[in-house]
What does this fold into?
Amino acid sequence: MAFPVHRMRRLRASEGLRSLVRETTLNPGQLILPLFVCPGEGVRREIGAMPGNYQLSVDELVRECAEAQALGVGGVMLFGLPETKDEMASGAYAEDGIVQRAVRALKRELKRLVVITDVCNCEYTSHGHCGKIVDGEVDNDTTLEWLALAAVSHARAGADMVAPSDMMDGRVAAIRAALDAAGFSNTPILAYAAKFASVFYGPFREAAESAPQFGDRRGYQMDPPNAREALREIELDIEEGADMVMIKPALPYLDIICRARERFDVPLAAYQVSGEFSMIVAAARNGWIDRDRAMIESLVAIRRAGAQIILTYFAKDVARLLD
Ligand code: PBG
It folds into this structure.
């Protein structure tokens, strides 16, 4: 027998063949674009560490979302910058809070767009932590009450889904119970189930003005070396009623995505976070890497690991490129 019989290169010989045997696809309809909404009118303030991303007033947000929808992006995830912050995160659950107003406007103008809201307190507290501070620590169970109020207010405004990102224990159960009691038993929960205390959130904290004023988030977000613990977090969130679960960040945690995909059958999302985005953009700006190819390769890797849905600041760029 002539050597070699198997020539793996045969199926790589042309784009047609490569396309035929391609195992993983990227579909803009399964990408979610995170957006930052701020007070005012006509505001479109670029975020220094996240070129091409903006703090948007509600009117500009509607414009941005119309474009995303026209491009076929699967949905948007909203983060809010309130007028004022306080110890009680009251802007997070105010009926006329910034996110609540944004959701109402979006549901009025763009009925088909899937609008998901981030449910957390760190953008609304004066100290930048994700909940109520008691003796220098975030108090879990009081924070659950705030989260439940916020989730219900988002649902009442018309959110298609709520996504708690705080990492308090028991928040999915608390939010599910509150939604059901308020008549929103059909509002799904996307749990940021395995969210690590990551350095890659740095640019986001500029965007959302949510950097903690003291300490860090290691007392509630996960310790990066822990994989088995991540699976337990996911399992608990599913038991508590999460309809979908998320792993965050994405690229540095592909092993967790892969293991979660094998173990759980709920839709699995991954968040390509701000730092992952900014690294690619910064390297491309220096001429060190090809922006589009790095964008696609990183997102394909996240899909290949097993994420069905990806939250990414590249969502519109991908949709444009694949069009
Ligand atoms: C809020 C929240 C954060 C991110 C999403 N939701 C920041 C944090 O936990 O400090 C980060 C997203 C990103 O970096 O793109 N808790």
